[in-house]
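We emphasize that the prediction below concerns an isolated chain of 393 residues; any contacts that depend on oligomerization or on bound cofactors are therefore not represented. The input was used exactly as deposited, without trimming of termini.
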Amino acid sequence: MKVLKCSNIFTGTKLRGKKVLKDHVILMDQGKIINVEPFNVQKLPWSKDDIFDFSDRNLFVLPGLIDTHLHLAHGGTDITEKADPDPLVALRMAHNAFKNLKAGMTTVRDMGAKNHIDVHFRRGVQLGLIPSPRVFISGQPIITTGGHCYYMGREADGPYEVARAVREQLKVQVDYIKLMVTGGVMTPGVGTCDLQFQKEEVEAAVRVAHNAGKMISSHAQGGPGVKLTIECGVDILEHGIYLAEEDIERMKKKGTYYIPTLIAIKEIAEEGAKVGVPQWAIDKAVGATEHHRKSYQMARKAGIPIGAGTDYRPGTLPDELRLMVSYGASNEEALYSATSVAAKVIGKEELLGSIEPGKMADFTVVSGNPLEDINTLKNVEAVIIAGEIKWSK
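Result of the prediction step, given as a token string:
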């Protein structure tokens, strides 16, 4: 058995009626949390080798942070990366995974890579070959011919071909299915709200995914694509930049989750020119940023479960949470978006997202109190995954 000795624990839930526990120990065995109990210096049945000491008064132990939407295959700033050969893409995935690990991530949900490189990368992580957060994958996004992210997607037209494309992802044992229902910022000649799939195509994808017990998400940035996403029963709306009030009402009725990826659009709009993002992409992002803020605020006010995701530059989840706070979320609410709510949004709430018995022993340790200053999330001291320290200062 291993033990975390902690001065401050943000549990991600209200354990024994408290969201923050003081002077507790977390007992771990075989990668899972066994118990969380008050620390008693008189009762130390563990050897010093079994104790991870985070009892410094300035340290906060959090549930392992979850980035619910990213692409390890891309750095996010160099559009030419999309043409790189597979071995180079795999190396970049390892590089970006380590960046996310150092930034405090214990789990990431990768939302697409070409040629199923992500399938093999996930296996490498599972074998312990790569220092990385835990990785869940969606394989190749299902797109229309020439649609958004055509360079990495599985092009499919018509309901039968779409169903086949979904089954191809299931064959290689992806964790999620992803559809590109509208255009996007980073594809030339495509409007962000252009509808790229028809109703019967989306219905076919949803049916096949759900029959296999898999969640399905939709890249839909606005317009009829968002409405179609919700009405057809897609589980997770990704981006949702241009949401209308009726979209929010449909989401509440259908139980649709939301991952806005706020920081991606804002960074492209404000910093894209400095790193070589094409002007046509910057123009789309500039036009989208204010709408994005309003969409997030409407969804938050309506109580839609919101997961924190970055989508763009590796290791920027703390910036996503900071942006959520600047848009009206409390620090606590933002933290939930990267812990307990994030776990629910990606369908892993039985294993991840909070510090309580039975969950995976995943923890992010930061210096400073993120409930008082969300920027302290940048002060990562250690990252623990399944009871093992994977990175520390």
